[in-house]
């Protein structure tokens, strides 16, 4: 499955001063980074600062969202050329919090995914179902519909795309999915995504209450190629522990 990818999503947290300490603690706790890709997604206001802190490291920079137009009268928005200028390589698209609180929907997600690819950055398309949907046995259909919509506007060659399965009921709740649940959903995601994107170009992540304690289970599960971590990415040592675990695993 290739190198694992570990992404830290700081959400609306962090400060100029705090990010310096956080990056330092990640670095000092990081074993040899090994065969793992690490990425940090701070808020927009910290991209420049965190970008310069990461410049001397192997850790990559990502954004938490983007607007698909390149420039213009779109108050409050941030474009792909702007993210590129900051050195971003990854962009989270369609995180459930964006869908839940900010009106993001399948149509806007599709436009953002396509625009991100067009600009040569890697979208991290987030999909995931509510607990009620899973309980009604409609979880897979729901997630696959989100996936199809998210990939629907892709055209031409796609260099790399990441898809994060993040069940809404597991995000920030301390109630992670099981590795088996993550693996089963990512298998279905992989089979469908493969029609749109060559297999080697898709990276599959699990997200939702990942901790250093449960990370090894996810990373060992079939079809799980990394994790998207929220809360734990704000704790340098814990995030580094997850990265080190991922770096020490031999993927087949
Ligand atoms: P969490 O968030 O790790 O705090 O559950 C994950 C996410 O929202 O990406």
Q: Supply Rg.
A: 17 Å
**Count of DSSP H/I helices:** 10
Average pLDDT confidence is: 95
Instruction: Give the total of beta strands.
Output: 8
Structure notes:
This protein has a domain at 60-195: Aldolase class I (TIM Barrel), CATH 3.20.20. Helix 1 runs parallel beside helix 10, helix 5 crosses helix 7 (139-151) and helix 7 packs across helix 8. The chain has helices at 16-29, 47-54, 80-85, 96-101, 106-118, 131-135, 139-151, 179-193, 212-220, 236-248; strands at 5-9, 37-41, 60-63, 88-93, 122-127, 161-165, 202-207, 226-229. The protein has 252 residues and is α/β, with parallel strands linked by helices. The protein has ten helices and eight strands. It has an eight-stranded parallel β-barrel with strand order 1-2-3-4-5-6-7-8, surrounded by six helices. Helices cover 40% and strands 16% of the residues. 2-phosphoglycolic acid binds at residues 9, 166, 171-172, 207-210, 228-232. 2-phosphoglycolic acid (PGA) is lined by residues 9, 166, 171-172, 207-210, 228-232.
